[in-house]
Amino acid sequence: MYQPLEQKKEQKKDRKNLSPAAFRALVRQGSFTGNTSGYAQGFVQGNVVILPKSWADDFLRFCQKNPKPCPLIAMSNNAGEYLLTELGEDIDIRTDVPRYRIFKKGQLVAEMNDISTLWQDDFVTFILGCSFSFEEALLADGLEIRNISENKNVPMYRTNIACKSAGRFSGNMVVSMRPLLAKEAIRAIQICSRFPQVHGAPVHLGDPSLIGIDDLNQPDFGDSVTIKDDELPVFWACGVTPQVALAQAKPELCITHTPGAMLITDIPNSKLAVL
Question: How far apart are the first and last CA of the chain?
Fold first, then answer.
């Protein structure tokens, strides 16, 4: 049925104010399959990695060695568990992420909205911190988040910044980018330093070529956003980094979130602040 544009805008606004549980219910029903930036504001969003148990120890060590791009928030207590009770009420990792990516031997083979039919008794789930959580703190300080104001997914780029290897996992960091004035970039560093579990302070600002990015208008993941003449591109470590490492390690089967489509938890962002 046709919906007037204003009605669609109001519906989206209402969804942004939903509680995490109500938002996950929409996801579980298949009614929301998009990018989650700006939704269920005030609550932690997480990147998702699901691996067979035989790969879990190596991946855990990779996270421990690379806390900027892979800040570990939670992992399943036992192989095969799909309810993540420490992250919230009735969180089912098989159904509560808007879009999943399926990798076989390092190759992306499918995207799905529900992975119940793929679930294995040896799967271990990892939830990593996401930059969408610190966006709230930046907005509260009066900074514009361009991907939110332009209703886009945040732009993400592969870089030449090497991660520390762990077992079968290695690769370069992926970063997310938000354009800011120089004085805003300084403030963003101060604010985000309080949130190490969601990537913390930026890893680079200014000339993108210094970290191996050729064209800001051609992100590897997400969407390009407007960068004004007086703004600097500011880069944060990104939780898509594990997807690059997984592609290189080539496990028989692994599952992640689709970049930008995160798990929304019941944990308040304020609980992740360290100062």
Answer: 49
Same domain, 86 and 44: yes
CATH code of the domain covering residue 179? 3.30.2040.10
Asked if residue 197 belongs to a domain, the reply is: yes
d(CA 152, CA 38) in angstroms, rounded, equals: 10
pLDDT tens for the 275 residues of the chain, in order: 444 544 445 555 566 789 999 999 999 999 999 999 889 888 999 999 999 999 999 999 999 999 999 999 999 999 999 999 999 989 999 999 999 999 999 999 999 999 999 999 999 999 999 888 888 889 999 999 999 999 999 999 999 999 999 999 999 999 999 999 999 999 999 999 988 888 999 999 999 999 999 999 999 999 999 999 999 999 999 989 998 999 999 999 999 999 989 999 999 988 877 75
Amino acid at 9: K
Stated pTM of the model: 0.88
CATH code of 127's domain = 3.40.1640.10
Print the domain residue range for 198: 134-241
Q: Kindly report the backbone phi and psi dihedral angles of residue 260, in degrees, each rounded to the nearest multiple of 5, phi listed first.
A: 95, -20
